[in-house]
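On clarity, I found the account of how folds are encoded harder to follow than it need be. What matters is that the chain and its backbone geometry are given together, residue for residue. The format is easy to grasp once an entry is in front of the reader. For illustration, here is how one protein appears when written out as sequence plus structure tokens.
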Amino acid sequence: MSMMQIGSHISSAKGYEAMGKQALKLGASTFAFFTRNPRGGSAKAVNEADVQRFLELWKEKGYGKIVAHAPYTLNACSDKAQVRRFAREAFAEDLARMEYTPGNYYNFHPGSHVGQGEETGVRLIAELLNECLREDMTTTVLLETMAGKGSEIGRSFEELREILDCVRLSDKIGVCLDTCHVWDAGYDIVNDLESVLREFDRVVGLNRLKAVHINDSINTLGSHKDRHARIGEGQIGTEAFVRIINHPALRELPFILETPNDDAGWTKEIAMLREKYQEF
């Protein structure tokens, strides 16, 4: 019998053990957390005893992967050298910190080329990855699918494939599919989920898909705006999410809620989605 891996973003302010306990209060079996302030800045020092208590808690519960998230200000393909410098430094530091919780995921937004063009954007992102990925790391880095707002890279499966093709340590990188983002990018996961996943498999490979950000969208298909909504309160709708969480290619992956909610709202969404999850 499979167990649904579902959770939300948890504040990392009080440390790893506190994150694990908060996730349990929400009824979650996974969670996401920002490695530092989502708007940038320095990261809090890691307390090894705190990490060990979390690892023991997670092992006791039999839970699997957690999904760290890079700060939103990390833009590997900025047109400003100092922004790219912060991206390299934060990325390398975060990957080193991830080894305190080995074997998990580090998700990041590929970045915005800010008028330099897709080709330059892809090259700069690949350069950062080739500089920071290491043979001995246990973390898998995830490129997030994007909505295509402004000059975002990652608005299409083809753009993600272009980055992947340039990365030397190919086994260290995968993809996180964001349901709001792919819908806003023009992929019809409501009426033709099968075709979208076939296209992803053809271009990227389903073996690369490691996690799902599960969010409804305020916007219509192909709007390229990236406005998240609570599950069932947007254009994607509850019925589509039932199909998504139960799809054979997706159901074993960690599902992370990034809906505009508080703890009570996430608890309700987690319980609702668990109820819709068909255990086999």
DSSP finds nine helices and ten strands in the chain. The mean pLDDT is 95. The radius of gyration is 18 Å.
